[in-house]
Every structure is written in C-alpha cells, then in structure tokens.
Amino acid sequence: MVSEIWLSLPLWLQGLCxxxxxxxxxxxIYLFVVRMRPLWRMRQDSSHRVPVTEQLPSISVxxxxxxxxxxxxxxLPLLLDSDxxxxxxxxxxxxxxxxxxxxxxxMDQRSEHFFHTTVAERIRTVSHHKLAxxxxxxxxxxxxxxxxxxxxxxxxxxxxxxxxxxxxxxxxAVIGPVVYESRSGVFNLFRQWDFFxxxxxxxxxxxxxxxxxxxxxxxxxxxxxxxxDHNRALQRHLGLHPGEDDLFLSEVxxxxxxxxxxSADSVVVVKQSPDxxxxxxxxxxxxxxxxxxxxxxLFIYRLDVITRVLCILxxxxxxxxxxxxQSWWVMGVAIGLLLIYAVTYVLIPYFTAQRLSxxxxxxxxxxxxxxxxxxxxxxxxxxxxxxxxxxxSRID
Length: 396
Known about the structure:
Blueprint: H1 2-8, H2 11-35, H3 37-46, E1 59-65, H4 69-80, E2 87-93, H5 100-110, E3 114-118, H6 128-139, E4 144-149, E5 152-154, H7 159-164, E6 173-175, E7 178-180, H8 186-208, E8 219-222, H9 223-227, H10 233-236, H11 246-252, E9 258-260, E10 268-270, H12 277-289, H13 295-324, H14 328-356, H15 364-368, H16 372-385
Parallel strand pairs: 1-2, 1-4, 2-3, 6-9, 7-10
Antiparallel strand pairs: 4-8, 5-10, 6-8
C-alpha cells in the first residue's frame, strides 16, 4: 500500500519528500546530540558526575564600565557580597563622564577587596574594550580572572563559586550563561529570545565540538593562559573593536580546556538598553567576528541555521503539494514530522531555561523560528558592508 502511494507520486514530489526527510533527520540529530548538551550537563552536575575542584581558586572579578554609575551603584554591592572565600573586584572605567568616579570612591571606602583603574580617553590606536581587559588582567592579584560588565547582575550570591569550582586540571577557561532581563513588549521579547537562543547555541556547540564564542558578561580564565608565550590572542586582534571575548576564547581553546557552567547559580542577567542599541551593536559585532572562529564549530552553527529553514520550508511544501494532489497519507506524514520537530524545538530551550531558573520561552521559539535566520543574514551582510568601522582608527 505504502509503496503504491509512493510510486504514484510524481518524481519532483518524491525528490521533495526525500529532501525534507533528510533535512528533518539532520535537525533532529542536531537537537538531540548538540542542542541538548547543556541539559545533559545539568543532569550530570546534579548527580555529581561533573568534575569539580575542592580547592577553589582565588578570583579577580574585572568589571568594565562606561558612563554606568547607576548600574555600578546597583550591582557592585551584589558582587562584593558574593559567597566566595578569596576574591577581589576591579572596575575598569573607560573614560566615564558621569558620576562613575564618585561611585567608585565610595566603594573604595567600603571594601579592602575593591579596586579601580581608568582607561585614558586619549588612546585611539587600540580597542578600548581590549585595553580595558588588558588593564584589568594586569591589575588582578589572583589566579583566575572573571570578566563581566557594569550592567550585569549575578543571579545568586553563589555565582563565583559556581564558576570557580569548574577550574579543575586542564580547564583554562569557563563560559557562564548570560540572559537579558525580562521586559514587556513584543520587540523586547524578541531580543530576549534571540540572545537566549544564541547563548544556548554557544554553550551547546562548545560542549559538543569546540569553543564557539563567549561573552565578556560572564567569562573566566586562568591568568597564566592570558600571559602564555604561545598565546597571542589579545595581541592579534588589538586593531579590532569587537572580539575581546569570543575571539580570545577561540584563540586559547585547545579542545577540552574550555568548559561551560550550566547551573542557575552561574547565570548573569544583563540589563537591556531601552533603545536596543546594545543588542544591535552586539549582533553586528558578533556577525563580523564569526569570520575569525574555528571552522568546525562555525560549520555546525551554520549547518543548523541553513537546515532549519530548509527543513521547515520543504516540509510545508510537501504538505501543501500532497494536499493539492489529495495524497493524504503523504500530507499526514509531513505534518506529523513537522509537529515532532516543533515540539522538540520548543521543549529543549524550555527545560534549559527552567533548569537555569530564567524566563521560560514557551511558543516564542516557533514565532521566530523562520525569522531569526534572516536576522542573521541581515547582520552578516551589514557587517560586510561596514567592515571598515570594526577597525580602530589610528592617529597619524
């Protein structure tokens, strides 16, 4: 019966069906093998199968700030009250013109473990973000440096402990989860989901095949790696504005020396800019720096994006064409496979967000599943057009 129905279909529809099923299989394999890796990691962690160190390393938290006095007033006390045996907080002020200096002086009086320094405004020959990173690392007294920014708030006082415990032998860097704060509005929800989706992709691919970026909102590494003779990660890209976080991690990665923190305690919440400037700028910067990533992680990411779009479009095409030809069995199979994919695509980020104790995205992924790849393409094209703006202008 099935063979008769199949043979009765025109060759072009048979080819479309084969293409759809092949793409569907690629997507299902990606979802279960790659996309679910953070969930598997959390399950391993809860059953104490993730290697952790009993001797917690000393940590220097380096906070980048630029005209963010209000954010510093809100978030610095949270950092200084962290539940961790040996840490310090260093704020690198990137030439702020607001009340940042006054806030930092007040913090000086509060804690002996608080320090701050300033990036000179006159410097224009290197990236300020990278220079701030360099100054922060040079000022750090401890073995591990943890990068964050003024607009970032740790989800719990256990943040440092959740990151520091993963620095076992052979681990040189730890990437922590980052989410946008929850805000009402359709566009804000889109920004939140887009950022969460890319964060989940970064974590998943890093755990599966190799380092795929990170964020200076929540990124830790051994200071010795930063200064290693063979490591030219920062020096190679000083002339680029973006990439102080993702390019640095890609350069120092040796396969299994970069890991991911997957727990509710390791989450950092980023305050959204009302005008979406931060999100758009980060999107554009990341589209540009993708060209410097390692081949295999970048291939896996692009394979997911491309096959996701083709899978859905071909599945809808099979369902519509089979319906027009009254091949109800073929139409039913196509719709069934699409429903399985849709449920899987929604449930994985839902349960991941649940385990991280952040906003749970229910049907939002389906609303943007075909839209986000075109956003990716838009920013990739814009990054190519505006490539000159990513290079630091030099003074003659």
